[in-house]
Design brief:
The protein is α+β, with helices and mostly antiparallel strands. The chain has three domains: 200 residues, FAD/NAD(P)-binding domain (3-Layer(bba) Sandwich); 113 residues, protoporphyrinogen ix oxidase, domain 3, CATH 1.10.3110; 94 residues, Polyamine Oxidase, Chain A, domain 2, CATH 3.90.660.10. The protein contains 15 helices and 20 strands. The strands form six sheets. The chain has a five-stranded parallel β-sheet, with helices on one face. The chain is globular.
Length: 443
């Protein structure tokens, strides 16, 4: 038996098998975060990744299924873009905070250290009175002094009333801000969630408040490069696979064996990165279903108008205070899509919009107030996501990432966090779910 003392009797390391169901931005983030530490299998019902932020084909046209804005504060989005080979400084147009409404507030923040950039931008802003500038400065200053924390969870409207913000300031600044960030009306929106967004942008370094507008289609921005990167890293990718059932085997929990099955295939854990209204059905989970039933959702409308010539919008992202559309985006200047403009309408009140044809005509009329003498568009398209985001309401609850029980984790912009339903919210959720899985499997 001589020499046995030199034998290495340790068991070989076996990487856990993790399933990620859903290849939207949260699912892709989770899979990327797990790669190298687990054997990852991604299930995606569609033929392409990206979820609600990707390129889609409609009547022989390839268009984004919505218009998205990123911020310099989106650290996880930017980190994972770089990891999969996307250079954010090339793929995104970075601009200092630029708020431009031809019929409202105009503010451009210079490239100065924070908070001087905001102070200078506000001092030189047009379209609001000197008194309104003081009101806005006091409101933001109060938030900053309190560490961007809110006592309780009032609605944004109630908080603004307490800070005596004028109706003009609310319509020019706060309402468009809340709709863009939370996609929830100000009289319902959570001030706690809005404060978290302001904390990471206006309350951080100057670069954090930079607008970062996609210079390419949404699929090329992250989903497609992420999918290719995962394939190169050895992940198993199953597109066009609609998962039917996910079941937990509690008898094997804690025994070192697989404890969850996806359509009968065994895994050590599953990350559910699907829409909230799909998760309870897949899991046959009545408790989760009751939680999801308590959530409400708001739509986003995107109207595309294509002209036979490039337009000269005042800014690549131009607001409209009095129009039906909240923002117009110059897709020609951003993505070299000739003559194309995208108009975004966030969280319209139920029944407030006319029929589709009348809505397009109204958006065109709004655009003509900004760019006079426009010809008739060559074509128009209306993209509607009726359940685009959860309603980020004051006092509203969301399921936690462990709400589905042992070995099953939830991910998505609708899962509990202090962030709203944004790309960064989705990516942060996916990263958090992946880290929770590895922490639980390796206590």
């Amino acid at each position: 038996m001589a020499g046995l003392e030199n034998l290495d009797l340790r068991l070989p390391f076996v990487r856990p098998r993790i399933a990620v169901v859903g290849a939207g931005w949260s699912g892709l983030a989770a899979a990327i975060e797990l790669t190298g530490r687990a054997d990852v299998t991604v299930f995606e019902a569609g033929r392409a990744p990206g979820g609600r932020a990707r390129r889609v084909r409609s009547e022989a046209l390839a268009l984004d299924n919505g218009q998205h804005i990123l911020l310099g504060a989106y650290r996880e989005c930017l980190r994972l873009m770089r990891k999969v080979g996307v250079d954010p400084e090339r793929a995104l147009l970075r601009q200092p905070l630029n708020w431009w409404q031809p019929d409202g507030m105009k503010m451009r923040c210079p490239r100065l250290p924070a908070p001087l950039h905001l102070a200078a931008g506000l001092l030189l802003a047009r379209g609001i009175s000197g008194a309104e500038k003081c009101q806005l400065a006091r409101a933001l200053g109060t938030l900053s002094l309190k560490g961007w924390r809110i006592e309780g969870d009032p609605t944004v409207a109630d908080w603004l009333a307490q800070r005596r913000q004028s109706s003009g300031l609310i319509e020019s600044f706060w309402r468009p801000l809340v709709l863009s960030a939370l996609n929830t009306p100000v009289d319902q929106a959570s001030m706690h969630i809005l404060a978290a967004v302001l904390r990471d942008s206006l309350g951080a370094a100057r670069e954090a408040s930079d607008l970062m507008l996609p210079r390419t289609d949404l699929s090329s921005l992250f989903p497609d490069p992420a999918w290719r990167w995962l394939e190169q890293q050895g992940a198993t990718l199953r597109s066009g696979w609609r998962v039917r059932a996910i079941r937990r085997d509690d008898s094997r929990s804690g025994m070192g064996g697989a404890s969850v099955s996806v359509d009968g295939e065994s895994f050590d854990a599953v990350i559910m990165a699907v829409a909230p209204y799909h998760a309870p059905t897949l899991l046959n989970d009545e408790s989760l279903e009751n939680q999801v039933k308590g959530m409400t959702f708001w739509p986003i409308y995107t109207v595309y108008l294509c002209f036979d010539r490039a337009l000269a919008l005042p800014q690549v992202m131009t607001g409209s205070r009095h129009g039906v559309a909240d923002w117009f985006f110059d897709r020609n200047a951003l993505c070299h899509e000739d003559g194309l403009v995208a108009a975004v309408i966030s969280a319209p009140a139920p029944g407030s919009l006319p029929s589709n044809d009348a809505l397009v005509a109204q958006v065109l009329a709004d655009l003509r107030k900004i760019v006079p003498d426009l010809p008739e568009p060559m074509w128009t398209r209306l993209q509607v996501d009726r359940r685009a985001t959860f309603a980020a309401c004051a006092g509203g609850g969301r399921p936690g990432l462990r709400a589905a029980g042992e070995a099953i984790y939830l991910a998505g912009d609708w899962v509990e966090s202090d962030y709203p339903a944004t790309l960064e919210g989705a990516v942060r959720s996916g990263v958090a779910a992946a880290r929770a899985v590895m922490c639980d499997l390796n206590p």
